[in-house]
């Protein structure tokens, strides 16, 4: 399988108990300096769940306890670098404060997430996550 | 993005109104000659929903009306060819009888699907689809 195919990423939606959303500030293009969900590319040989746990830990220092699938985001135009399909998870974490690492220059729970323009289609992912939390409670 | 990454496929779970499951018989390895869900690789530049519709039409001649995400299947061992991540959809189709095409030598609604050993992890996908139908009704 050597033909060109879409790349796969994961994104993590994490709320704390005060309904603040965990966001990182991107170190690298595209959307450098902008807020985004923690996430990144799935490695060959890695499950999407493992990739979500790894990226969350690398970028925010936080450990995932539970993951629930939000959806699959595959619009070919969602990433200016090329066709990237993202698998998004609603993640419950173990207690702890975020510390930025890897591709993130900041990692924080933000109270103002509703007003922020996030990178990629992350506003849409968050909207779907919010709808899912409302339905399942 | 030229490094080796997992490939992405889609699979379609389609039941008719008599609770029979749409299955194809695979023309090519792996699992040649075995029953499987209709599906295949997502093309670069194609959404996963469009890929599911296209593969369903190519392999069975049937047209998808509505798609609902079942889950994401990413175990690196699920495909003997290499790491393939599948996005599975529960699909409602327009009326019509299946006719085999493309990578399928047969396409039929099978009443005995509970007894069949399907290719890849398709038995697991069907089990999850059945659970989802039960919850949402």
TrEMBL record, chains A, B:
User: Which keywords does UniProt give here?
Assistant: Hydrolase
SUPFAM superfamilies hit by this protein: Nudix
Top-level lineage group: Bacteria
> Does the keyword section mention Coiled coil?
no
One Gene Ontology MF term: hydrolase activity
Question: What Pfam family does this protein match (any one)?
Answer: NUDIX
Please give the PROSITE patterns that the UniProt record associates with this protein.
NUDIX, NUDIX_BOX
Q: Which cofactor does it need?
A: Mg(2+)
Q: Does the keyword NADP apply?
A: no
* InterPro entries the UniProt entry points to: Nudix_hydrolase, NUDIX_hydrolase-like_dom_sf, NUDIX_hydrolase_CS, NUDIX_hydrolase_dom
What family does this belong to?
Belongs to the Nudix hydrolase family.
Q: Kindly provide the name given to this protein in its UniProt entry.
A: Uncharacterized protein
Organism from which the protein derives: Pseudorhodoplanes sinuspersici
């Amino acid at each position: 399988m050597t033909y060109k195919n879409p790349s796969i990423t994961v994104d993590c939606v994490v709320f704390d108990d005060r309904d603040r959303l965990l966001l990182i500030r991107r170190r690298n293009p595209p959307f450098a300096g902008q807020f985004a969900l923690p996430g990144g590319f799935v490695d060959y040989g890695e499950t999407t769940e493992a990739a979500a746990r790894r990226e969350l830990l690398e970028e925010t220092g936080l450990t995932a306890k539970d993951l629930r699938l939000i959806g699959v985001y595959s619009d070919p135009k969602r990433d200016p670098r090329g066709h990237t399909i993202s698998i998004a998870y609603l993640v419950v974490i173990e207690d702890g404060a975020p510390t930025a690492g890897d591709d993130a220059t900041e990692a924080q729970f933000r109270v103002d997430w509703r007003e922020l323009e996030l990178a990629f289609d992350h506003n849409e992912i968050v909207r779907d996550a919010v709808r899912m939390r409302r339905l399942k409670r």
